[in-house]
């Protein structure tokens, strides 16, 4: 297409374009495969996986907020083994990068996950140190640089695949956390996971979510995500996958300019199932109009 | 995948409910009674998420379908302002509809509140000879689609909470009387959770199969995000199962109502 | 009005209703006094004051974001002495609580501010430990519990007026910060200040704000603010003033249910100059409809 | 305080600019040339903030005022869809307009881009005998309000960037020629910052007073939030001053253009 090059390599993961479906918003790809050809995507980060199957949190699990949503799914998933057996073969039938999103309650869980996923047919592992909807593990590791350093350096030893560490925005200084991940051996960081929030129904005087609090995503959080990507890009050398409220090509360009090498979209797809495809098309259009030959030229291109 | 259709008609049914007729060959042809659509309300982020609405009835000849919508909040309010000729962004048909088995000769459809809507096309399409509908409304002035229902079944019973029309009381009480009169082969129940729960318990005693249509807040509408779940029995255990994909219709005995 | 009681006492500050204009969004009240009778308000938190006059940051100082705004004003103000001389007499002509919002670069600045304001005719002092738009002081004190404890315990000794400590949401655990403020002697906490964010113009490849980053406010942040108020209300005993995206009576009720004793509104007034008045009216309407006799019944009334 | 008015007319002026006529006794009567209004675009949060727009002209008899608006983004797009009869939420008139001194017998109004709009009512209202307007457009097809301007001044000069109509080049070049022909008593400049800066520097050399109309992103629109500032000289120093309240019109020699 007009000689523009959308390819990007994130720490060894080859993407034919920098647009990836965000974890938890795209299941294992089956549902959206009926809406568009998954081959269009750069990659898919699958639903957050754990060692054993998890039931997740009680409903309601979603609340609408101004230009955003809260979710409190709580990592419902069939367990990593079922994923490997039943979902990878389906996903492999497409020519896209498969990123396995992994969570755990303990460091040993994370080690187990990275080990088993390293011998599975995935392209990269996204270590979820940032889910706000589960009591143990996850965000509690991800909110301190010590926690992140410890988990990442431990699992790095077991990792036979590129390791992406997914960061929580619910911290005082995200650059400190990103640096801890980098020092511990992360090949990339992805950010942001959701911001902890809450919605109340004044009529019933009750929280809307069954789990009381949930994670905020969608356009509302974009300014925060963009700032964090920008700050982290100044703090680490490893590539960044940016996300948080991206809905179209222009949003994606903004994240690339701020310093991301690729982007993920989740929530926007709920509103528009073509959001991923339209984001790729919008990015192409921007590149053509602005005479950008390769997407790599945009990365960190902010004039500030 | 195209999701943009034209509105053919918008009609007020009662103080807060309206009927939207939308042109779509695809949805009219493909949809089964009980299935839903997922609608974008307005162009912007004002009502950010799509809204799930049951297909109320379809005209397969004309290639149109009807939605009966109650104004509850921002999104349904936006939809109520649409007029003939306007575009509407609709994903669907989605989910699993009611079971239409020829072996079910005598059926009863029980609905309360917005739960009555999916029952209309069910009654139209069901092959049973004997179709009865029991519909509940708060009060006389809120009764809607009465003629449409009457024409689609053999007998229509209406209950109002205040007795201002039909029987006074809950639809489940009427159901109880009907069942005790003569056992149906199958019952379909759609309405508030308490109502469905009571109905399912009642029918269990009589060993009559039934289906219910579950409601939950939704995100993607197609099964990918796992937000719209209810508890569904699985072997000796249960799973949180997506209402948008495996439902909204479930067999009454597989649902765990908390 | 129908025998409902909107009065509330926040740590000794008497408010005839719990709706206060948020600092920085209402100047010193003069401008909005032409739009409505300031007597309608519970109180006013005036523009952030410093020891000496401050010019503030270069424009653009505002960017629109999905359901919100970013601002980077940077505490432009005429200095605390000018405020005392020129603005207090005007504000005192109304029967509303005057809350002086005070910032500083150093602890000594904060001490100076609290001392001078304690002998001025104000009803309370809101210690701004949370402005994200200035390089020194402020948020750098406010983002650690040690920082907050130190500043608050030092200024408390000079304080002759109720001391409200305004918290930043840009922290890992706001309850820890709130507890530090309480332990150090704060009479109340107010939250949230703005979330650090950023906006980029893809066309020009430049940040929209002259200061690159800015503070996010408005409806977009409401779920985060509500969650923080809820968490803090479980963590401290002192009264909480809640804010962040409140636009109407229902929003205000949600904050009260979450545990706030009063609320502030800022950004909403830019869109609707009657937002403060309409919020009070909406709150009254809710109370009448739900048979709530006194606003105190709503505080912390969430059923969860 | 009521801010809701009725739209009387919406008219397309060129490919991306339209003229909105709004009914408001108050604004028509009270406003001075150069003042602005602050408009809510749509009901929702889609375009969250109000948009500042200069009053282009007023009809004090009819009690209406005109806004000429260029579609730039979300908010102006929403405004462009409004039609006669629709409501519009307008705060205003706001800020300080141009100085209309009877001692200024010969004036020149210089405008570029959207900067031409506030000059129309200025030319209509100014008491000078000799009123000249110099307006700049990118190209012929974008020229708008030509007749209106021609009727409101003694002489109208038009410049286009590409020379497709009138003089080729920048308005400041035309201003230079005019000033060198005959010194005006006062000049009003409104347009991009670079243009205003060049104009102010030119006029300074000739010791001619001038006023400029500044632009900046706005929040409250009334002076309370301090976001819409520009550098204004004060004694030996300068202050960031609110454009919405102390401007948008400032004396050319008090503004510091960075
Ligand atoms: C399977 C299914 C079928 C439905 N069929 C119909 C129908 O045929 N006719 C009809 O009028 N209504 C139906 N509803 C309910 C309808 O979806 C809600 O009334 C509607 O989403 C409320 O949106 P709102 O913008 O008016 O309210 P708001 O309160 O502004 O909505 C805020 C958010 O909460 C969600 N929400 C609020 N109430 C409900 C609810 N009861 N169920 C699901 N989500 C909710 C909204 O979708 C939105 O995401 C159905 C719901 C489900 C789940
Ligand atoms: C004093 C003044 C007078 C003006 N008079 C006119 C006029 O008569 N006619 C006209 O067409 N335009 C005028 N403008 C410019 C007009 O305000 C912007 O074009 C408009 O705000 C853009 O809004 P949008 O939603 O289309 O763009 P978006 O890009 O969606 O706007 C996003 C945000 O940026 C702000 N913004 C973007 N561009 C500008 C700008 N140039 N100036 C100020 N804010 C901006 C918007 O107000 C909004 O808050 C004037 C601006 C000022 C400050
Ligand atoms: C319903 C839902 C489920 C999610 N589940 C996961 C998950 O399992 N693992 C994970 O790392 N992130 C999860 N996320 C976070 C997203 O991957 C993403 O970080 C966040 O939503 C911000 O991007 P967005 O605004 O484009 O959605 C989930 C988000 C949503 C909305
Ligand atoms: C333009 C602007 C200026 C502000 N200035 C101050 C300030 O000087 N001191 C302060 O404590 N907070 C300041 N704030 C923060 C607000 O007081 C408030 O905490 C925040 O905006 C969230 O509330 P809101 O969403 O109702 O605006 C400012 C906010 C805005 C938008
Ligand atoms: S709404 Fe996403 S799974 Fe049902
Ligand atoms: S826009 Fe608020 S001071 Fe000008």
List the helices and strands and how they pair.
The complex is a heterotetramer, with two copies of chain A (304 residues) and two copies of chain B (258 residues).
Chain A: E1 8-10, E2 13-15, E3 19-21, E4 43-45, E5 62-65, E6 68-71, H1 80-92, E7 97-102, H2 107-118, E8 124-128, H3 139-142, H4 145-156, E9 163-166, H5 174-183, E10 188-191, E11 195-198, E12 200-201, E13 206-207, E14 213-217, H6 222-235, E15 240-242, H7 249-258, E16 262-265, H8 268-271, H9 275-289
Parallel strand pairs in A: 3-4, 3-16, 4-7, 7-8, 8-9, 9-10, 10-15, 15-16
Antiparallel strand pairs in A: 1-2, 5-6, 6-14, 11-14, 12-13
Chain B: E1 4-14, E2 17-23, H1 25-30, E3 36-40, E4 51-54, E5 57-59, E6 64-70, H2 74-80, E7 87-94, E8 106-112, H3 117-125, E9 130-137, H4 146-152, E10 155-160, E11 167-168, H5 171-181, E12 186-190, H6 193-206, E13 210-213, E14 229-234, E15 237-242, H7 243-246, E16 249-251, E17 255-256
Parallel strand pairs in B: 8-9, 8-12, 9-10, 10-11, 12-13
Antiparallel strand pairs in B: 1-2, 1-7, 2-6, 3-4, 3-7, 5-6, 13-16, 14-15, 14-17
Helix pairs in contact in B: 5-6
One flavin mononucleotide sits between chains A (22-25, 47-48, 71, 73, 75, 101, 128, 131, 166, 193-194, 217-218, 243-246, 265-268) and B (219, 225, 227).
Produce a short descriptive summary:
The complex is a heterotetramer, with two copies of chain A (304 residues) and two copies of chain B (258 residues). Chain A is globular.
Can you say what the CATH homologous superfamily of chain A is? Aldolase class I
Separation of termini of chain A?
31 Å
- Oligomeric state of the chains in view: heterotetramer
What is the total domain count of chain A? 1
What is the distance, rounded to the nearest whole angstrom, between the alpha carbons of the first and last residues of chain B?
Answer: 38 Å
Strand content of chain B: 35-45%
Give the biggest beta sheet of chain A. Answer: 8 strands, parallel, barrel
The most extensive interface, with participating residues per chain, is: A-C, 47 and 47 residues
Q: Using the alpha-carbon principal axes, give the shape of chain B.
A: globular
What is the β-strand count of chain A? 16
At the first level of CATH, the class of the largest domain in chain B is Alpha Beta
CATH class of chain A: Alpha Beta
Report the bound ligands by name, code or SMILES.
flavin-adenine dinucleotide, flavin mononucleotide, FE2/S2 (inorganic) cluster
SSE sequence of chain A, one letter per element: EEEEEEHEHEHHEHEEEEEHEHEHH
């Amino acid at each position: 297409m007009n000689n523009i090059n959308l390819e990007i390599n994130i720490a060894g993961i080859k993407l034919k374009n920098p647009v990836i479906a965000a974890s938890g918003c795209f299941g294992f790809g089956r549902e959206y495969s009926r809406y568009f050809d998954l081959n269009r995507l750069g990659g898919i980060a699958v639903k957050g996986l754990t060692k054993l199957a998890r039931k997740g949190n009680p409903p309601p699990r979603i609340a609408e907020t101004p230009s955003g949503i809260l979710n409190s799914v709580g990592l419902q998933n069939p367990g990593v083994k079922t994923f490997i057996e039943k979902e990878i073969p389906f996903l492999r039938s497409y020519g896209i990068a498969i990123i396995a999103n992994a969570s755990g309650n303990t460091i040993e869980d994370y080690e187990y996950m990275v080990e088993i996923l390293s011998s599975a047919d995935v392209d990269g592992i996204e270590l979820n140190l940032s889910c706000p909807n589960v009591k143990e593990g996850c965000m509690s590791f991800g909110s301190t640089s010590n926690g992140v350093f410890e988990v990442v350096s431990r699992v790095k030893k077991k990792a036979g695949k590129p390791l992406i560490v997914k960061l929580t925005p619910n911290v005082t200084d995200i650059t400190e956390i990103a640096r801890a991940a980098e020092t511990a051996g992360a090949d990339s960081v992805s950010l942001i996971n959701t911001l902890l929030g809450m919605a109340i129904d004044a009529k019933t005087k009750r929280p809307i979510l069954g789990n009381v609090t949930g994670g905020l995503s969608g356009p509302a959080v974009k300014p925060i995500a963009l700032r964090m990507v920008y700050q982290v890009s100044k703090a680490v050398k490893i590539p960044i996958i940016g996300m948080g409220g991206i809905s179209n090509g222009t949003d994606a360009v903004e994240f690339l300019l701020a310093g991301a090498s690729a982007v993920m979209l989740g929530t926007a797809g709920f509103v528009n199932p073509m959001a991923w495809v339209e984001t790729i098309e919008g990015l192409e259009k921007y590149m053509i109009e602005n005479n950008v030959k390769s997407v790599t030229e945009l990365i960190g291109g902010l004039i500030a | 995948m195209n999701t943009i259709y034209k509105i053919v008609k918008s009609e007020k049914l009662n103080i807060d409910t309206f009927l939207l007729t939308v042109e779509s060959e695809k949805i009219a042809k493909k949809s089964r009674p009980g299935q839903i659509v997922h609608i974008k309300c307005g162009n912007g982020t004002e009502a950010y998420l799509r809204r799930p609405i049951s297909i109320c009835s379809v005209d397969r000849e004309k290639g149109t379908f009807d939605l009966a919508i109650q104004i509850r909040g921002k999104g349904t309010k936006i939809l109520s302002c649409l007029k003939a000729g306007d575009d509407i962004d609709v994903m669907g048909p989605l989910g699993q509809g009611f079971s239409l088995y020829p072996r079910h000769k005598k059926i009863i459809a029980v609905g309360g509140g917005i739960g009555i809507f999916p029952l209309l096309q069910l009654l139209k399409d069901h092959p049973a000879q004997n179709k009865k509908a029991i519909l509940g409304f708060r009060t006389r002035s809120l009764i809607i689609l009465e003629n449409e229902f009457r024409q689609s079944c053999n007998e229509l019973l209406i209950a109002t909470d205040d007795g201002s029309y039909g029987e006074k009381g809950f639809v489940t009480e009427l159901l109880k009387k009907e069942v005790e009169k003569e056992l149906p082969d199958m019952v379909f129940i759609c309405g508030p959770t308490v109502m469905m729960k009571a109905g399912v318990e009642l029918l269990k005693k009589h060993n009559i199969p039934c289906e219910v249509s579950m409601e939950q807040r939704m995100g993607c509408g197609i099964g990918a995000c796992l937000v719209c779940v209810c508890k569904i029995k699985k072997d000796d255990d249960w799973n949180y199962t997506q209402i948008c994909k495996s439902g909204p219709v479930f067999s009454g005995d597989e649902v765990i109502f908390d």
